[in-house]
Amino acid sequence: MLRSGDRAPSFSLPDADMEIFDFASVLGKQNVVLYFYPRDNTPGCTRQATDFSDHKDQFDRLGCTILGVSPDDCLTHAEFRDEHGLAINLLSDEDGEVCRLYDVLKNREVDGRNRVGVVRSTFVIDREGIIQAALYDVTPKGHAAEIFELVKQLETRKLNANR
Asked: 99 catalytic, yes or no?
């Protein structure tokens, strides 16, 4: 499992518009909230995505971009984004490579069968690419507000360090 203080693994993934997002493009420029979720259009995943989207302007003011990652394909992400009016970037990790890098794939028993699935997880990554918070198995309700507070604390520490 990744922890605070670890360097965030770099990656490139396609977004809902099939444009490649390269994590390296935000290094040195923005903080990142990188959250992993199991599937588009499930109740918990929809709540989490809409909560982050509803607060995107607040995150933007703190110099923070929000990235949602799931194994769904780009087309499914585009439909999910459009149906719910999401303003955040959704990235497709169909082969699970980035999910493995961030250690968010776990075996679970579903209907008596073992299946590998994404554990809902969020990483707050600073501008230098260092993980400041690694939260695994999170609950969607109130999660965006909790993460916003962590990002706000990160920016406050940065301001205080520059004084």
From this structure: no
